[in-house]
Amino acid sequence: KGSREYVLSVREQMLNNKSFKVPEDWDVDWNIRLGPIWTPAELGSTNLVCWLSPEYYHPLDTDADIIAQASDRSGNGVIWENTWTSASCPMFTSPLNDFKGMGFDGTQWIYSTDESGDGELDPGTGDFSITMLVEFGGISTAEKYVLCSDGTKDFALSVKEVSGTDRYKVYFDGSATTAAPAVNVSAPVILTVGRSGGDQFLKLANLSINDTNITGTESVDIDNSQQFFIGGKEASTDRSAGNMFTGNIYEIMFYNGTLSTDDIKNLEGYLAHKYAQT
Q1: What is the reported pTM?
Q2: Contact at 8 Å (CB) between 120 and 78?
Q3: How many CB atoms lie within 10 A of CB 207?
Q4: Average per-residue pLDDT in the chain?
């Protein structure tokens, strides 16, 4: 079982089967970019509701550089798309350790669609967690929305220049808190944001901290819109106000439920290994 072809076939199953287990006798002597041998689907204590990874970003039929759709790798069937114009869709980035992400230039966005009306990305008042590998571009005094649940910002993550320093802002139920850590614009960042035990948090893998300035117990309820936006806000007027995200998002996982410290470390390790980040 040590042939190069066998190793490649196993890697292909790893990338396309969310629950695939690597054989114990797998020979890894070949010089192949294997990526991680653990996946986000293997967290047993939480509900993986959506998982966007480069292997599931689909190009536009007429332009291989444009991402027309991103499909959910978790098996829950959440579809992300942008049907406004091809110019407002994200673009494929340059590879990061052989994996291309979604690139946003401040005019592009993508949103989730919920055909069933079940609100897969809506945790209500319960715990939830969103982990991503993101690379920030230009940040200004106008807020740049990385994620936004709806027009009223029941939940949102943005970045903004505050008193000369680039900061994270986290919204719950329309109420914002500016996080203490500064935004790193020099390298990709692994971050986790959400709510645990009723308290909101922002965690940066490179700092290994929870920002204690993010506190509160507000609800996150996006049942009415049943959409989630990456790269901007819901209303078209908001998306023309200079507050759309600039940068790259390579991979992102949405969980409903409580992530333990070990869970978060596992997700950080998965992303760091796959994209060759430290």
Answers
A1: 0.84
A2: yes
A3: 14
A4: 83
